[in-house]
Amino acid sequence: MILTEEEELEFKLLEEQLTKRGLPVPPEVTLALSRQEMFKRGLLTNTFADFVGMANPGLMRFDHVPKLISVGQRIVDGLLDRVIVMLPPRYLKTEIFSKLLSAYYLLKHGDKHVAITSYVARLTWEISSASRNFYQRGGGVISEETAAKDRWVTSKGGELWAIGMGGGILGHGYHLGVVDDPIQPQKARSPHFRELFEDWWPNTWLSRQERGHGQIAVVMQRLAPEDPIDFLFRREVGERTQLAPEKWHVVCMDEIKSDEPLGRWSGPMGLPPTCTLEPDERPKGRVLSPNWIPEATVKQAQAGAGPLTTASQRQQRPMAAEGLFWKIEWFNEYQELPAAAYDGGYDWDTAYGEGAADSAWVESYRGVSARDNPDDFDIYIDDCGWDDFTMPALVQKMQDLADLPQYVEAKASGKSAVQWLKTYQIAAKEVTVKGDKLARAAAAQPAVTGGRIYVSAKASQKLLWGEGQGLLRVTAEALQEGGKGLDLNDAFVQAIHRHLGLSEKKSRLKYR
User: Fold this and answer.
1) Side-by-side strand order, sheet with 428-431
2) Backbone angles phi and psi of 421, in degrees to 5
3) For an engineered disulfide with 187, which of 37, 51, 193, 322 has Cβ 3.0 to 4.6 Å away?
4) Residue 176 and residue 443: Cα distance in Å, rounded?
5) Rg (CA), the chain
6) 210 near 174, Cβ under 8 Å?
7) Are residues 76 and 176 in contact, defined by beta-carbon separation less than 8 angstroms?
8) Rounded Cα–Cα distance for residues 470 and 328 (Å)
9) What is the largest CA-CA distance in the chain?
10) What is the helix (H) or strand (E) element at residue 135, kind and residue range?
11) Helix (H, G, I), strand (E, B), or coil: what is residue 378?
């Protein structure tokens, strides 16, 4: 194990004080300092596995990590030029490929350049700082004048630079480029953000390879049928370019081992025929790393994630959004609202302006959790409604429902609905709901599939079966296209987001 700078200083001071007083130095202190010095001299890091074992020894005990380390070693040795690692979230991909591998690569190739990119710059800066610490603790020396969070230079002339996808990278090049989560999950099904990536990849990213060729590792979970990985596979078979194929080596780590094809082509497991596939010796049905995330936890997480998220991010086999989005068996019915229910309110999908426009509302409450996790509570939908409201009628309806707080979506642009309603003495609060209609509904879907949504008998027919607006009439295609007749769905989804705080939970930067 590598000592931190503080631990190393503490051990050295202890050794010095004991020696001055003629007292014996504990053998574990001597051993730790000796191993630290040997590590710095590169005597304990002949392989990437050695380096990981010293830098973060706890990783070595997890079932899936040795395979990742083996792939990393082949990258450092120049045996793999193009690698795609499809790994579920929270399975240590950033720790191994972005932080540890980049540091070890520069320890072995001190005069080369490493680039790290992701969908957000601040994530890459955290990665850069961690990589720099690993590099220095492994004996690497950096130029203090160029030790910024977004770029640092080795004493041998190499460098690491980190930037968010879409940021300016003029003047920078790379021998090894790590692409770590290039697109946010909630934006992966958006044609706009897909087009941004598809333009960035050939025109910006590939153009920065040193002398026209560098090694590239793309590490992410599958997100959608037409996500960045699908784009790379389509390029591989000539759908997007007439250039020679990249010949990607694919490492697929589905959370529960499946024998279903990974793509629609004629290569191994349905991959493009020019790709190679890292062997996975697990039998069908075996979870990926039970001593990292136990089997019971995996199955519980998959059951609660919703079919779209499970198929893509966890199983690496994204499915097209099609057919009816909500199913009757996911909803529970109740007769009387529990006495302990609280945080009641009306969530609105409002359309206002001159003339009549569709608006919808949902009355909902939060239940008290009867389970161990206080955040695992049920949500009660007590009433709902929608109509083609003229502006006076909409105002009158909201005034009629003034017995509970009223919530409207916080719009990114345009006049705030809250400000507009204040002119009519209606106090409303804003709720932030991120993503397009499909992404919003997909984020709410796990709570529904998990049996946490209860609908009152009086509102059940209207909410689920109501003509034109009932949830059981909503299709994934309509959500993806942002079609009409989704006002009730949008109010329902907003209510779930509000109760669960989905839009308040900021993305964790320390992706693993």
Assistant:
1) 332-334, 453-456, 379-389, 357-366, 342-349, 406-409, 428-431
2) -70, -30
3) 193
4) 35
5) 27
6) yes
7) no
8) 11
9) 92
10) helix 121-137
11) coil
- Tell me the C-alpha to C-alpha distance, in Å, between residue 474 and each of 297, 298, 328, 390: 31, 29, 12, 25
Tokens read off for 173: 């090049």
- Tell whether 359 and 232 lie within a shared domain: no
Q: For residue 157, what are its two tokens?
A: 């002339």
Within a domain: 512: no
- Alpha-carbon gap, residue 11 to 6, rounded angstroms: 9
Out of 260, 289, 314, a domain closes at 314
Per DSSP, the three-state class of 360 is: strand
**pLDDT score at 462:** 93
CA 186 to chain centroid: 9
Q: Can you give the residue range of the structural domain that contains 81?
A: 55-314
- Using alpha carbons, select from 327, 323, 304 the residue that is nearest to residue 314: 304
pLDDT at 36: 66
Helix 65-76 to helix 48-55 angle (10° resolution) is 130
Q: Splitting the chain (512 residues) into consecutive groups of 10 residues, what average pLDDT does each group show? A: 70 79 80 67 77 88 96 97 96 96 95 94 93 88 78 92 79 92 85 89 92 93 93 92 91 96 96 97 96 94 84 91 86 95 93 67 91 83 89 84 89 64 83 88 90 95 91 90 88 96 56 36
In this structure, the number of other CB atoms found within 10 A of the CB of residue 387 comes to: 16
215 and 150 belong to one structural domain: yes
What is the length of the chain?
Answer: 512
3-state secondary structure of 291: coil
Query: Using an 8 Å Cβ cutoff, are 158 and 112 in contact?
Result: yes
**H/E run at residue 192:** helix 191-200
Q: Which two tokens stand for residue 194?
A: 């897909």
- Token readout for 65 is 């990590």
HSE-CB at 346 with a 13 A cutoff on CA atoms is 23
- What is the number of domains present in the chain? 3
Residues 395-418 as b/e (b if ≥16 CB within 10 A, e otherwise) read bebbeebeeeebbbbeeeeeeebb
Cα separation, 319 vs 328, whole angstroms: 21
| 498 and 505 Cβ atoms separated by less than 8 Å | no
Q: What is the reported pLDDT for 507?
A: 40
pLDDT in the model for residue 509: 34
264 Cα distance to chain centroid: 25
The answer to whether residues 20 and 119 belong to one domain is no
Tokens 């955290």 belong to which residue?
A: 126
pLDDT value of position 512: 40
pLDDT for 150 equals 87
Selection from 96, 82, 78, 88 nearest residue 250 by Cα:
82
Q: Are 475 and 482 in contact (CB under 8 A)?
A: no
- Six token digits for residue 30: 């001597």
